Model the fold of this input.
Amino acid sequence: MNTSDPAPLTEAEERAAAAQFEREGFFIAPPLIPPELLARVRPRIAAVYAGDYETGIPPNGNPPGAKEPPSALVKIDNAHRSDRTIHELVSHPAIGRWAAALNGSRMVQVFATQMLIKPPGSQGSGNVGWHQDYEYWEGALQGELFTAWVAVSDVTAESGPMRFVRGSNHWGLLKAGDFFGHNLDAIKQRIMEKNGTSAWQEVAAVLPPGGVSFHHRLSVHGSGPNLAAGPRVSFAIHLRTEKSGLRDGVRWQDAGYLNDFADPQGCPVCYRE
Done:
């Protein structure tokens, strides 16, 4: 497959993919990001981590630049506002085309991103606690929202891949997760008690560089420590469709790290029918 222009889904494949996304709450696509773009984006990730902002716009929270490799999970919000190559990656049209195929949308738009670096040897400090993305958005946004997760490094079973809980998109908004929590077992127990179920089947999103997974806003997901030799590097790209919007009475200046839909730098459209 030519990853610079992935083959379009047939109608049968599109129906099967959309059915899986609806049933299980996630879908793992073939590699979508061209190797050439990955090669260009890697040094820009290092630059943003070090505090070099090509556009002059700092990421949300204006994290201090660091010269030493991280020893714990790094999460930098909206690095795509700070760097043109990162912006190119998170708004890649292949992501938009596949996202639209999964939910039948006519428009797909980025509204926030996270640049994630999980260093090796970080043990529990590299964990991402079990959570539902909508826990962090529901105060500001409503409607059809979901996430594409792009592997920049080789995400193996040893490197702490993201893990989805199959079918948890049907559990409703539980508000029992904690992205920043390191004790995965304790968070899992809290979620299961809140949901009143013992059904918990995890699926690891093992991805090659350029691989992309998509998950529903209510899908429970998290990840464990990186036991591989090198860092696990990825982007979480939060997406919306035309069936979404700002909640009544909410102002963009009160929406935290979420970007105004009218801002093409913060909210690029990656698909339009």
About this structure: The chain has a mean pLDDT of 94. Residues 163 and 204 are 4 Å apart (CA to CA). The longest strand covers residues 232-246. Residues 35-49 form the longest helix (15 residues).
